[in-house]
Amino acid sequence: MSLIRKSTDLTLPTAIKMMIYAQAGTGKTTLSLSAPKPLLLDFDGGVNRINLSHLEGVDIVQVTNWEEIKQLLASPQDLAPYQTIVPDTVGKLLDCIITYKCGLRQPRVQDWSGINAEFLWFTKQLASLNKHIIFIAHRDTRKEGDRTVFIPLLREKTYNTIITDLDLLGYLEMVSDKGVQKRILTFDPTDRSEGKNTCLMPAQLNVTTIVDKQGRPTAANDFIQREVITRYNAMLSQKHELQKAYKSVVEDLSSRIEAITNAEQANEFIKYIATVQHVGSSKDEGRRMFAAKAKELGLTFDTETKLYSDAKAE
Hints:
The chain has 314 residues and is α/β, with parallel strands linked by helices. It has 2 domains: 14-221, P-loop containing nucleotide triphosphate hydrolases (Rossmann fold, 3-Layer(aba) Sandwich), CATH 3.40.50; 238-309, no CATH class. Helix content is 39%, strand content 22%. Strands 1, 2, 3, 4, 5, 6, 7, 8, 9 and 10 form a 10-stranded mixed β-sheet that branches. Strands 11-12 form a two-stranded antiparallel sheet. Strand 11 (300-302) and strand 12 (307-309) form a beta hairpin. The longest helix is centred in the last third of the chain and has 36 residues, at 223-258. The mean pLDDT is 88.
């Protein structure tokens, strides 16, 4: 069986992997918990700073050491009720691994291969759960000439390990619009912030405020579910419909080609394939199957008449 597959035959992922980074106090943890059925892995001790109303229905692991994470991931049945895993923050997660590997001393050069391997193991274990993953990171800056670019606060190698596998990287910030403070989540990379947007999300989303000045909730904390996951699922649905239509066309062509036994039927098929409403590469696939059938039957093609004739009896 060939390992080569058409784009319309690919298995589409149902879970999304993203990272949100921002300054402290911007609400990135609360925003991340607006994903469906989240489990918060609290490496940062930040759960104590979240409005209690936003923790309703949210389960939490207050991580104190890396052995707890190993224990958690060794029992996938315990994670079955959750649709989203939220590691908060990636920087503190890495600190946890460093303590696990090095104890109280600073890591040496030779330690980093083991530290990076442990981090890679963690990301692969999360990915194998087929759940939404939302990494949280603090904001850092990078100088590019005269410009300052905002980036996640991570070691470069750790950042590269994560960013390659992410579907979305969003920068959350507070901006002033005519004296009104708004929170903006930017997915597209810009000249002032890192980003990644492989899910065709809007370049920017306005994150609505869901508490009043006294900290009382004014709306449900469901932004990511509503504005990100719903859009992602709609995109998947469109791709599934495209795959379904492609397979239907190819199956029809395949059955017709299989029934061809002579040149007359082959010439009729040439007329037919030109009338089909093709999807993706279905026309190319039909031509490939037809060419193989014509060769199998020993048909001869006349380049002037553009017609096939039966093999001459010897």
